[in-house]
């Protein structure tokens, strides 16, 4: 399956997907990395791996979110993309792109959903005093950080954690679960039943 990874920043999750897809047995190919920021660090990394890159600068579409998304969608279509993986893509999506890629767009969120949607998840996890925190890969639906859950990974919260130390621990599991979740989707093993994901055997 031809996959586009959408990023806004350093792209460490993007890199974990690229690394996994280097295995010939992996069921997906990272065919495109697209950023809404021309200065995203991940773009250069992707280019080093010989992957096609594209930029759609959201600042060229002030007040026109759908126009921005139509430009993104046109590139995805031109590149014959079949699955979209959001990886630190910091734009709220309108129903246009969500509907265009329904059941074919996935996202990684640095919390155990449905807890801690939105930003500053590690700060809020520490504030709440939870003892387990983690990351979630899910299909994208109209509401932010919502949609059927494909995979989750948990880490302990330690007494002396700061948002930084906790975030680094969570990032480690992000890099493990995102390649596995994408493989489940690309191979067709992650199936939707009543808007929940059933995945059979996870052999990746
Ligand atoms: C990750 O924590 C991801 O879960 C969140 O944004 C961060 C992106 O990091 N949505 P990176 O660009 O993949 O390194």
Automatic annotation (TrEMBL):
Gene3D superfamilies noted in UniProt: Formyl transferase, N-terminal domain
Sequence positions that bind (6R)-10-formyltetrahydrofolate: 65, 90-93, 107
Catalytic activity: N(1)-(5-phospho-beta-D-ribosyl)glycinamide + (6R)-10-formyltetrahydrofolate = N(2)-formyl-N(1)-(5-phospho-beta-D-ribosyl)glycinamide + (6S)-5,6,7,8-tetrahydrofolate + H(+)
Positions of N(1)-(5-phospho-beta-D-ribosyl)glycinamide binding: 11-13
InterPro entries cross-referenced by the UniProt entry: Formyl_transf_N, Formyl_transf_N_sf, GART, GART_AS
Family, similarity comment: Belongs to the GART family.
Protein name per UniProt: Phosphoribosylglycinamide formyltransferase
